[in-house]
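Collaboration report, partner site 2.

Our partner group contributed sequences for two proteins of shared interest, and the home lab folded both. The records are reproduced in the order in which they were received, starting with the first partner submission.
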Amino acid sequence: MRKTIWIICCLTYILVSCESKAQTYPDETWSRAENPEAMGWPDVERSNFTRYIIDSTNITGLVLVHKGEIVFEYGDINENSYIASCRKSVLALLYGKYVDNGTIDLDKTLEGLNITDVTELLPIEKKATVKDLISARSGVYLRGSNGGDFRRFAPDRGSVEPGSHWLYNNWDFNVAGHIFEQETKKNIYDEIESQLATPLQMQDWDRSLQEKSGNSDLSKFPAYHMWFSTRDMARIGLLMLRNGKWKNTQVIPKDWVQEVIKQRTSYAEAQKSVPVLKEDGLDLGYGYMWWLIENTNDPKLKNAYSAQGAMGQNITVYPNIDVVLAFKTNSVYRRRNSIQTQMKLVRKAVEIFDAQ
């Protein structure tokens, strides 16, 4: 019996060791694939992709990572710039540690958390939970302190029960940031540094750049804006691809990563609530502050998911092919990309990959 247990333990150790060796992570700098073509990324197709980026987009930096190594890069991938709504997906990761240890209770209501704003909440709105906020299903249609959402498609206030209707509204996300800090007694940016930037050995993270802003006359909850480089965004994507594990450390609870990318809203419901989403070029559902690529016959895109931000900020994870895409459009250059352009890039980036 003891011998059998010993053999099982040895086999388990060997399997774990093999898995660890099979997964590549960057250290202080990214490793670049010596022969991308041999990994399924033909030289001709990568050259064509470069021309497409130059001719058809305003992207300022892009990285493609396959099996933990960079197989393609374009532009300035180390400059820090505003990542717009990708910030919400970063916040979703920060939640994991504190949901796991019970510090944050996703079932707490706005009333129970003493959430008030410039405009008083209705009784029905106070019933919304933290879970409703981070899935964009709160039923609270107050204006956020910053723009860039779909509030114009909102039903009348008080007309829907919390949890019953999806609507991408910045008020939800800004309040989710406030609740994170209220419940944990931690600053969001300090948590990015301790939970993500340090363990992931981010090359360009600069705490001094991070700053909240918003119109306090509209809402007392500011937007927690963030500045990252493209190559550091790719580290976040790789962390997600590896189910929250970085080398030998479980940085984000594995179960929480799966909760984040679990469908909370289907693409059909999202498009019914916000009809303009039908024009995006990909059908997108929603999890906990991450977008889910759905209704696709392309095996490379199946199970893929994205963090997305205005003007052209994106992290897309393609689990089926072990690939991460990150791209940026630095607003200081007065350049921007439509969501349709972003979705074309999400498709084209892996069209050049030959899985054979």
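Second partner submission, folded after the first:
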Amino acid sequence: MADPELEAIRQRRMQELIAQHSVGNQHNPEQEKAQDEAKREAEERRQMMLSQILSAEARERLARIALVKPEKARGVEDVILRAAQMGQITEKVSEERLISLLEQINNQTARQTKVTIQRRRSVLEDDD
């Protein structure tokens, strides 16, 4: 009796859900463009602040580190920017100061490897 009507309602609802889901997954090119522009501007501000804080030699060293380990360089940049915002850095960071900062960060993040050897005894082995 009500089965065909109920089935029709279910089908319509499924189509609505699928349509909503597909609309939610579609990327709006204008929104993507605005997000990309905001990211680019934030990165430009970040680089400008770093150029004001770091000396030329320190910037060069950080750029070389970024070629090899981008995540480490980004972390060092974050530390330097935070310190500058908190007023801990009052003058340009020299290459020597950057090196000492890198050494401190390496010591803090050094991973210690521990190897445990478990020997299994053979069934045929006599301990008597």
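Feedback sent to the partner group on the second submission included the following. The chain has five helices and no strands. The two ends are 85 Å apart (CA to CA).
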